[in-house]
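Course assignment 3, question 2. Fill in each field.
Student: A.L.
Task: Predict the tertiary structure for the chain below.
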Amino acid sequence: MTTRLDSRYTAAQLGQLSGVGERTVRYYVREGLIDPPNGRGRGAHFDNRHLGQLQRVRFLQEAGLDHAAIRQHGEEIEAALAKRGVARRDWEAEWARSSQDVARIYRRLKAQRYAPAVSTVTRVEVADGISLLIEGSHRLPAPTRLAEAVAALRAAFDVTDSTKQAERK
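Answer field:
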């Protein structure tokens, strides 16, 4: 759904645009995650800046942040903007205008910062409690070289083959 830059929304409309309920919008206002509506009483309304705030909260929640961390994130952004002489309202208005770009940036940030790096690992059991781990980014050595490495590790830890241990008992 496209929105005009001067749009005015009720809490229910804002929630519908962002995929949350009206009660959630009001809860986020109480929690300090988004600003209170503009105006008072029947004239109170939300705008695209609030929509941007709500989208930012949702992205940060998807990234695994709790409400306290989201508030801290907002404070850090505000401090960084103040150092650059940029008003938070101006930045949030820009956020609302370019929410698609911001969504892409936050998804990338989430993938880089909050999602653990995924790699394959080959595990070679050397002895009980001792394993050799080879990360997927490295090529496995030839089987004879791998057997030599395992034998060297067993010798270093003074471990004999399990078959030889069984024979001794």
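Instructor remarks: Residues 67-83 form the longest helix (17 residues). The helical segments are 11-18, 22-31, 48-62, 67-83, 88-97, 99-114, 143-156, 162-168.
Grade: pending
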